[in-house]
Design brief:
Number of strands of chain A: 19
Number of helices of chain A: 17
Radius of gyration of chain B: 17 Å
Strand content of chain B: 5-15%
Strand content of chain A: 15-25%
Strand order of the largest sheet of chain A: 18-4-1-2-3-19
Order of helices and strands of chain B: HHHHEEHEHHEE
Oligomer: heterodimer
Largest sheet of chain A: 6 strands, mixed
Chain lengths: 489, 193
């Protein structure tokens, strides 16, 4: 009892200290009607309400005391991958939501949810209403393996699997069958490790997170005991980071199941590695050594030098029962190390296949240039090629890699470049722009009603309320219509 | 107010806690002679599991602005100089027990703290001037893990949210890394393979 009081006291105190700290960072109050405080200041539109959008907004608001920033988001709820991508057992990473909330509540910032840019309103219309438009809409698609059998039942993209346990409305009907014993994940980045960890974590741990209740029920009934994480190159090229690897190593009731042969020559290479790669590799080698001989029922392991070539179907021809892998050797060195097939093949028996080989951006509007090969909006330092007044930040600018900190730095870069352009006259601020007033009026004529930030906060309160009765930080609403009903109630 | 003593005792879950001793002399509980020592002694027991419940790590205690005359005693002041990304020197007066990240925020220094001091990001990455590196306790493994992700990592890199001011740190200088698009010092950009 005393302990709980202490915990609650600390929580409250930490919250208070955080809010004091945030308050002290706030820009001084500027008075005036929201959004109208400077008729001649720059009006900027940001497309996408995830980390890139919010960090770009934050920087713009700070750098120009006369800037008004409007963030448009397709879903009724903000925060993008912080809400739908970050693993449920990584709540600290989601603390950044507090920073974003502060930005959204800034008097010169407005959030407009439930607006599908490209469908409800065009980029051209936005460019007419704003001095500058920043594309921060991220990567909602995924790279496909492009192998036969990819469409069989039991094969999922990590994007969809993660969306499923994180409550992304589009993935709520995913219903993965977790009856099989072995799951194979293609790709060895942090998303792959997140999926492996969620598949193998004790349900007792997961049930106190914001993982959705329905996915929790499915995981509770899971028979998955063994997760293999497959990569086409070797241990020195693995894309995950040490924090996530450490979490795998420390997973209760599981053991590491590696192939010592995959690590030939690695010990000798250690001394020349830069620190992050060295520490990561050392931890992996420790896992190889310590995993052997353990008689624990659940296991996870890396399988290196293997590329998927075919998903194998069972007798009915409809569901995946295995995966055929091509064995590779490495050529080249350093960053140029490439996997080259040897001609040998290997089959792995499994009933769940998750491809975690990268997210992918889509073009938003025919008037915006798009590079289909790299799947990004072509740009130079965030200035969209062959346009003026159009910028980009985040994954749609750089490609879908990196953590929140990477996107933060990138978004700050774009904001700086935009500010520079404003100051150099490249963005013409002498013209008056109507901003949100014009756009919301246009949307209204099209029957599109927006969700404002205080309305998101109603959704937020409802989710927290439902979570409380379940012992979770929140129970996410899975249905867009339900979100809208609560927002507009 | 009772909470600040608890917080000052540190919300850490590892042996790191032991190094961050509470500064009893400026704690109201101590002053009012109602400290039972429970915050110091029991905090470790209460949080031996990985930090899944509380969303922050080491003591984020920050001396509040409303301070009584005793708290402004000269010997508690720790001078810190922040050097921001444009090279500007920002001298600041902190107090023993202050968290360097929140001290920066208090003085408008541009140091992000995305995960709010919970060792889940590297946005508060700073360079510590060489004379003071050794005066800091060694980073715990989790801090090193996060530092590994910071662009432009150097020997004297630390996470600001893990630096708690002590009298020995008076005069410390913390430089904010100049992070650019290319996260590699030599301009190298990783190639897709």
């Amino acid at each position: 009892m005393k302990r709980m009081t202490m915990i609650n006291l600390m929580k409250a105190s930490v919250k208070k200290i955080h809010s004091l700290s945030r308050a002290s960072r706030c820009l001084p109050a500027e008075g005036g009607v929201r959004g109208f405080s400077s008729a001649s200041g720059p009006r900027v539109c940001i497309v996408g309400g995830g980390p890139a959008g919010f960090y770009t907004a934050q920087q713009l608001l700070k750098a120009r005391r006369d800037a008004v920033v409007d963030i448009y988001e397709r879903l009724p709820v903000p925060f993008g991958l912080v809400r739908f991508g970050v693993a449920p057992d990584h709540p600290e990473v989601k603390n950044v939501i507090n920073t974003f909330t502060q930005t959204a509540q800034h008097e010169r910032c407005s959030f407009y949810g439930n607006v599908n840019v490209g469908k409800d309103v065009t980029i051209e219309e936005l460019r007419q209403a704003y001095h500058a438009v920043v594309l921060s809409y991220g990567a909602e698609g995924n790279r496909s393996m492009k192998i036969p059998g990819e469409d069989l039942s039991g094969v999922f993209s990590a994007k969809d699997f993660v969306g499923w346990y994180n409550g992304l409305p589009n993935n709520k009907e995913l219903c993965p069958d977790l009856n099989c014993e072995t799951a194979v994940i293609l790709g060895q980045g942090n998303v792959a490790l997140d999926v492996a960890r969620i598949l193998l974590s004790p349900v007792d741990m997961l049930k106190e997170t914001d993982i959705t209740q329905n996915s929790l029920a499915v995981l509770a009934g899971s028979n998955v005991r063994r997760v293999l994480i497959v990569g086409r190159r070797g241990p020195l090229q693995i894309a995950c980071t040490i924090k996530e690897l450490r979490e795998m190593v420390n997973l209760p009731n599981t053991r590491a199941d590696m192939m010592p042969n995959d690590f030939e020559g690695i010990a000798e290479a250690l001394k020349d590695l830069p620190r992050p790669r060295k520490r990561l590799t050392e931890l992996m080698m420790k896992a190889v050594k310590e995993g052997r001989g353990d008689k624990v029922e659940k296991s996870w392991g890396f399988r290196f030098f293997r590329s998927p070539v075919e998903v194998l179907a069972g007798a009915d021809g409809k569901r995946a029962t295995g995966i055929r892998l091509a064995l590779n050797k490495l050529e080249g060195s350093g960053e140029d190390t490439r996997a080259v097939p040897t001609g040998q093949l290997e089959d792995l028996e499994c009933g769940l296949i998750i491809s975690s080989i990268g997210y992918k951006s889509f073009p938003i509007d025919p008037t915006v240039p798009f590079d289909p090969r790299k799947a990004i909006v072509p740009n130079a330092m965030g200035r969209v090629q062959d346009t003026t007044g159009l910028y980009c930040s985040g994954w749609v600018k750089r490609g879908p890699t990196g953590v929140i900190a990477t996107t933060m730095n990138d978004s700050f870069d774009t904001a700086r470049v935009l500010i520079q352009d404003m100051e150099a006259g490249e963005v013409d601020l002498s013209v008056n722009k109507a901003g949100a007033q014009a756009i919301t009026a246009l949307l209204q004529t099209r029957g599109v009603r927006t969700v404002l930030f205080p309305q998101w906060e109603k959704i937020n309160a409802e989710e927290e309320k439902r979570g409380k009765s379940l012992g979770k930080p929140r129970e996410k609403l899975l249905d867009v219509d339900e979100m809208l009903k609560i927002a507009w109630s | 107010m009772a909470a600040s003593a608890a917080v000052r005792a540190g919300v850490s879950f590892t042996h790191r806690f032991v190094r961050v001793s509470p500064v009893c002399s400026i704690c109201p509980l101590h002053r009012l002679k109602v400290c039972t020592g429970v915050a110091v002694g029991r905090a470790v027991d209460g949080f031996s599991s990985p930090n899944r419940r509380l969303q922050t790590s080491i003591g984020v205690c920050q001396s509040e602005d409303s301070s009584s005359p005793e708290e402004d005693r000269h010997e508690h002041v720790v001078n810190v100089v922040y050097i921001d990304r444009s090279g500007q020197r920002i001298p600041v007066k902190g107090k023993v027990g202050d968290n360097v990240l929140y001290l920066a925020h208090k003085h408008g220094v541009d140091l992000e703290g995305a995960c709010e001091a919970s060792l889940a990001c590297s946005t508060c990455h700073v360079y510590v001037n060489s004379d003071y590196c050794d005066k800091l306790p060694d980073p715990e493994e989790r801090e090193d893990d996060m530092l590994d992700m910071a662009p432009l990592l150097q020997e004297n890199s630390r996470l600001g949210c893990q630096i708690i001011l002590t009298p020995e740190l008076d005069g410390i200088e913390l430089t904010l890394p100049k992070v650019t698009r290319n996260f590699y010092v030599d301009g190298h950009v990783p190639k897709p393979h």
